[in-house]
Amino acid sequence: MINNSFPLLSRAVSAFISGALFPYSLSPYDFWIAAIVSPLWLYILTRYGKIRNSVSYFYLYSLGMFSVGVHWIFFSVHDYGNASDLLAGTLVFLFVVFYSLVSIPGGYVYARFFRDSDICSLLAFVSIWVLQEWIRSWLFTGFPWLYLGYGVMGTWLEKFSPFLGIFGVSFVVVYVSISFWLGFYKKNINWIVFPALLVFISPFLDRWEFSESIGKASVSLVQGNVDQHSKWSPENRQAIFRLYLDASQEELGRDIIIWPEASVTYLKQTIESQIKQLDKEAKDKQSALIFGVPSRTEDGYFQNSLMAIGQSEGHYIKRRLVPFGEYVPMEKYLRGLIAFFDLPMSRNSSGPVEQLALTFRGKSISSSICYEIAYPDLVRKAARNPVFLLTVSNDTWFGDSIGPWQHLQLARMRALENDRALIRATNNGITAVIDNRGKIVSSLPQFSEGILRDTIELRQGETPFHRFGSYPILILSILLLIIASARLEE
Fold this sequence. Notes:
Layout: H1 8-21, H2 33-47, H3 51-69, H4 73-80, H5 85-100, H6 103-113, H7 118-136, H8 161-186, H9 190-201, E1 212-223, H10 237-249, E2 256-258, H11 272-284, E3 288-296, E4 302-310, E5 312-317, H12 331-334, E6 358-360, E7 363-369, H13 376-381, E8 389-393, H14 403-418, E9 422-426, E10 432-434, E11 440-443, E12 450-460, H15 464-468, H16 471-489
Parallel strand pairs: 1-2, 2-3, 7-8, 8-9
Antiparallel strand pairs: 1-12, 3-4, 4-5, 5-6, 6-7, 9-10, 10-11
């Protein structure tokens, strides 16, 4: 067996390295071959040998993946949580170690029950991979990052997105990779026929037109580049508000003007008169203005929200909050221990699960704030048949790291899944306009103040993913596990 030709330590190290390789398939590196090779090597490692060793390879793979893929969390903990190098490094290390544990149950099920048969091992490995990605989207509040399907964006395989969503693309990548290897290793062309067909048809999938254009809209996205260290100081509120007001004066008359997440640092309740005046000015100029503003609940908690005025209407309250950044889990035990557990605006409450969508001239918009864009089903459910997707963010927390690039890539996938243009307004980058094929049409450089002006296409119609979500591919994964189990019993 291939795996037995390597010493145990070498296999363990290679499991970690193969996991560490995968994030290089993501932005800003976009080395898509890593997304093909990385899961394949884990399959080869775990297919043979002792059960406990195979389970440990799953865990080591996850350690490598998270260590490289989310090291950018260090910047927010260190630079904005006022943690020392040692403390910040320790907290990130604990996060990586903790989240990597998610891979152990699936790894054990695979190694214990499905390795003896080629077909069963293939079906089980692919299914468990997808189900583990899905579990990470909700377990321990959820961390829907580092999904394999993002690694093949820019290739033909991304064209499965409108049909199957991000989990479906991950499914196809793992299935194609392992099937081709089995075909060559077993010298049996039967393994290659169906995956080759999938690869062959993928370039033609975008010939399906799931939506149609119903018009265009001019957009202006304001990137304020406000310093995060001083943003929430009361003495800076008026200057920040004035920055966005002044930047938008010349933009009035364009169809859509967007300010980023929490661009206004006043509480919504304290500037009602200014909002009414802005609403009047925007309506007079036939413009829609959407901006991020915090509000406060009766019980004293903050809410991260979007206000839509002028030719747009509605008030959207963020539903998925960032742990420690917007709320502190186990607050009564952790609050005040260190500065990181007491960040500004970290006493937030989430909005209702069911909310009315923001509208633009009577048509619905799918809106998301910050890392909500990472949740594919949350975005598709935010509005039924929206004319475009909107996301606002403040990626200042992650400095000059790969975090903002990964975040932008998630937004591109949401545009692909729903066949909609997406506009993304951020505080310091990466502000961008993305078309319905997931391509970046225009963007502003990071760490700069500016206004991105472009035109987007308004569309209507539903992709299979927008209509059915992730359920079909999750059900398929479960069914394949059942089929693999049944074959083993025969």
